[in-house]
Amino acid sequence: MQDSCGIIDFGSQYTQLIARKLRELGVYSEIFSPTTPLADLKAKSLRAIILSGGPSSVSDPDAPHLPWKIKEISIPVLGICYGMQLMAKELSGTVHQSQKREYGVDKIESKSSVLFPATEIRSVLMSHGDHVEKAPPGFEITATSLNGVPAAMEAPSLKIFGIQFHPEVKHTDRGEEILKNFLKFAGFDFSWKSSHILEELEAQLRRQIKPGAKILCALSGGVDSTVLAVFLNKVFPGQVDCFCVDTGLLRKNEIGNLTQLFKDTFHFPISIVDAADKFLTALKGVTDPEQKRKVIGRVFIEVFTAENKKHSDVKFLAQGTLYPDVIESISAHGGPSAKIKSHHNVGGLPADMPFELVEPFRFLFKDEVRRLGEHLGIPHNFVWRHPFPGPGLGVRILGEITRERLDILREADFRLQEVLREFNWYEKLWQSFCVFLPVRSVGVMGDARTYEETIAVRCVHSDDGMTAHVAALPGEVLERISSRIINEVKGINRVVYDISSKPPATIEWE
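The structure corresponding to this sequence follows.
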């Protein structure tokens, strides 16, 4: 597309978040590998380039770099974190390892420039071990951290800008303003609309799937796979067979609610495959979270392969994979991102699958999929359900997965959701769930000693799942949650509240 911004992915956990922010500002963007030749970028008629952050040090011998010189691109360039360090090193500045690593929310002082509106102090998210010691010739330092480290540099005459912090995350005060100032400098008119996403996804699907080709759509019961199923049936009516695999790891009443939704609202059938025994047998004795995910992924494909034998003409398997799943599992665009954990529908899938994967949402965030769902007519109360992991309750039980533990967790989680709705907290949260902890402690009930296990409650606020902070639930809500779980769920005598943010923790425990 014309009038777009290119983003070079050096492996940052936030690369797709940059693209999301640009879309919100009305600018179309595409993400490219650092190895993309300059000729390919110029063929895209880009109006600007953003160099992402990344986990590497520019001093490392194998640090990622560009196969072309920054000055050769001849359009405005913004370097973020690693991107700023890379441009400083290439343009004859100096980059040193920091004696004091800057990580987390910190303060910077800026002065009036292209990127900053005035001399002021603002909060930003830092995440770096190296820093620019000396700016390249022709650059002016336009912001510094309270440690005296350069936090931004600009060379408007060269159309090159760098910032050491992350403007794309919510933790940075008015980060969108900084991005918008760069985009204004590049000449964007901010006319792209988020409604274009559906058009782009449909065009992408029609390129991948030929008319008449059969598609298996994997329904988990969550928002993402449901939106995908409805969307695929809209684009390819009569070509989609929707299956929900009952893994035995789903929430209470999940299968019945899903079946009723498709019957009453969308008027096309779904098939339920009861594979609970198969999954639980395969997971017996498995305690490592990475192994759990891989086992679930393997059995998942085995079940779908068996179903495929009933539909020999099916060649595609569609999944509602989202970008946060991808970026935690593997590099989404070839950048050297650090692997956080395998997701069963990303890094956990076997290499020899008999299907071609269809994952149109793999570069979208949850809120964007929810908007698509509303556009497609999916009921509000379903679209705004909290995220549920593909491996289900299997990654919300620490240690071995058993039927007894699953039953306890389902009942506890059901009561958590009821209380949150009772106090009108459910839709204020990004995600809420219970975790089964195989930790026993002493309690007392009816004047008798108990020695039972623990439920951890996790409630967080987030915009996209890439970062999150704990929800400060009122004391009366927490007390009600604890009271209902302990009094009504046999085997639990203690409830604890998880107060960890992401990062450093992930939202899910495994």
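The longest helix spans residues 289-308.
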